From TrEMBL:
UniProt keywords, alphabetically: Membrane, Phosphoprotein, Transmembrane, Transmembrane helix
Name assigned to this protein: Response regulator
Residue ranges occupied by any Response regulatory domain in the UniProt entry: 160-275
Domain of life: Bacteria
Organism expressing this protein natively: Larkinella rosea
Any GO molecular function: phosphorelay sensor kinase activity
Keyword flag Acetylation: no
Membrane spanning stretches: 16-36
């Protein structure tokens, strides 16, 4: 009888202890929800609000970058189209009065570019092509003959430059400043540039990095990786004065890199130096290969 009472008491005590424990846990849970629940819901609401604001700010930032890029490209391209004819005329004009007028226009165009850069991107310093150039007393040597028609130009003794530029006005302005020494073939997209480069093997390639179908970076990389074209000098053009883009282009194998607008006299001389280097290399190889033993 005593054992039965002991077992009954123990069973009731265990049940009571279990119920008490569950009650304490449930009470603690309810107390925690009552005290910390509103704070947790508030924190979650603030986190969602912060994420929404961050997404909105990123969208606004991306929109600003897109607008800035488009405006910068249009402004610098337009300014290049203004400066190139002025620089062509400076090379062709000997009269002091007209040279002074043209130099004044050119100087103020570069000043306008400097002000634009300061307002649009004050942290980006002017690169080496944005300074007002020194004017030469004599025009430089003639550089190229322009052939805009396609397909490929007729064979002749002049070295061939392939110009890959989708802005026809800019392409015409660049090519017209090279009249007399080189043949220029214009194409308007990277894919056509690749096909002409591998088919014609030009002496030099000038390409804008912002061209359709295949951008200038991709075109440069393919040219430098292909055994048929890896020896051809490649000059990249861009409307974005970005050090990152310049490093990227040079890392891909570009032989030179210009941000528009640039000084056309310097541009001509750099092209001429690359072409002269290619010519001297060919002459040395021919003399070495065919040298009698």
């Amino acid at each position: 009888m005593a054992d039965e009472l002991t077992d009954l008491f123990s069973s009731q005590a265990l049940e009571w202890l279990t119920n008490l424990t569950l009650g304490v846990l449930l009470g603690g849970l309810l107390f925690g929800l009552f005290i910390y629940g509103p704070k947790w819901f508030r924190a979650q609401k603030l986190a969602r609000l912060a994420a929404r604001q961050a997404k909105q700010q990123q969208t606004i930032h991306d929109l600003k970058v897109s607008i800035f890029h488009g405006l910068t490209m249009e402004f610098r391209t337009t300014l290049t189209l203004i400066l190139l004819p002025i620089q062509h005329m400076l090379m062709e004009t000997q009269e002091a009065k007209n040279r002074h007028r043209l130099a004044t226009i050119e100087k103020n165009a570069y000043r306008l570019l400097s002000l634009f850069n300061q307002q649009m991107d004050p942290n980006n310093p002017d690169d080496r092509f944005l300074k007002t150039p020194d004017l030469l007393e004599k025009p430089p040597v003639d550089l190229i003959r322009f052939h805009p028609e396609k397909p490929a130009p007729l064979p002749n003794a002049q070295p061939l430059i392939l110009l890959v530029e989708n802005n026809p006005e800019l392409a015409d302005s660049i090519a017209s400043g090279f009249t007399g020494k080189y043949t220029v073939l214009q194409v308007t997209n990277g894919l056509e540039g690749w096909e002409q480069a591998t088919g014609l093997i030009p002496d030099l390639i000038i390409g804008d990095i912002e061209i359709p179908d295949m951008d200038g970076f991709t075109l440069c990389r393919k040219l430098k990786e292909d055994q048929r074209t890896q020896h051809i000098p490649v000059v990249l053009l861009t409307t974005t004065p970005s050090t990152e883009n310049r490093i990227k282009g040079l890392a891909l194998g570009a032989d030179d890199y210009f941000s528009q607008p640039y000084n056309f006299t310097e541009f001509q001389l750099r092209i001429q130096n690359l072409m002269d280097h290619q010519r001297r290399l060919r002459e040395w190889m021919q003399a070495t290969i065919f040298r009698p033993f």
